[in-house]
Write a structure and sequence with these properties.
Ribosomal protein S3 C-terminal domain, four-stranded mixed sheet, GMP Synthetase, Chain A, domain 3, about 260 residues, alpha/beta, four-stranded antiparallel sheet
């Protein structure tokens, strides 16, 4: 039986880094885990609609540094920084005695982020989009943005069917068993009137060799278009029409030989 391993956890310590960086002794470890979950839940509840890709947490003594990677940093910051100030105060109130430092980073290209792709497809399914069309459009946008491969899987009562099933679409290469392959992975759930539909997305950015990471995702669309134009096109072959040219002469000579033998 095949076991499906999380692609991010499978590559931790090799080409991926954990989302939480801190050290704790045996007594403080459970409390830190619970506090990290509380911080993530608060952020998702307040600004989850801003397209959050990743929440990183770092600890040093009594100070906690939280970094939010989002596709819409303006929504997290708010007008005049009001939203991020209220969010920081709520986290500090929930974690008494800790100093919170909240930072916001923008995702440069949301079309090649596995988490944001899964969230986008889930939102379209909630708005009653056709699941095949939503998956294919997301894959097409990812490939056009520079990804080397993309795969999306939806499972549940698709299109309101009585029997739940799973369907997936893919394009390019997605080598899940290659540890040096830089694969971005994300999940989301679509709450439809028929029930929950789970969405998974895998995006392959290229293999990590030395210090070069995500070399495929850095290729601009302009350079890719120029390379396509510079490629030498194949010269189309001339079509042969039956009854003209050499074919007709061959047929005539063959008929004369047959008459000569008879």
């Amino acid at each position: 039986m095949g076991n499906k391993v999380n692609p991010l956890g499978f590559r931790l310590g090799v080409i991926k880094e954990p989302s939480a960086r801190w050290y704790a002794n045996f007594k403080d470890y459970p409390r830190y885990i619970a506090e990290d979950g509380l911080i993530r839940d608060l952020i998702q509840k307040e600004v989850g609609h801003s397209g959050i890709e990743r929440i990183s947490i770092e600890r040093a003594a009594q100070s906690i540094s939280v970094t939010v990677r989002t596709a819409k940093p303006g929504v997290v910051i708010g007008r005049g920084g009001e939203t991020i100030k209220s969010l920081r105060s709520r986290i500090e109130k929930a974690l008494a005695g800790s100093t919170i430092s909240l930072n916001v980073q923008e995702v440069p290209n949301p079309n090649i982020s596995g988490q944001l792709i899964a969230v986008k497809v889930a939102e379209q399914l909630e708005r009653r989009f056709q699941f095949r069309r939503a998956m294919q459009q997301a894959i097409q946008r990812a490939m056009e943005s520079g990804a080397q491969g993309c795969k999306i899987r939806c499972a549940g009562r698709l299109n309101g069917a009585e029997q739940a099933r799973a369907e997936h679409f893919s394009d390019g290469r997605v080598p899940l068993q290659t540890i040096r392959a830089d694969i971005d992975y994300g999940t989301a759930e679509a709450a439809t009137q028929y029930g929950k539909i789970g969405v998974k997305a895998w995006v392959f950015h290229g293999e990590v060799v030395g210090d070069k990471q995500r070399s495929a995702a850095t290729i601009s669309s302009k350079s890719r278009e120029d390379s396509k134009k510079n490629k030498r096109r194949r010269r189309p072959q001339r079509r042969r029409t039956g009854g003209t040219g050499q074919g007709q002469n061959r047929g005539a000579s063959g008929g004369n030989r047959a008459r000569g033998k008879s």
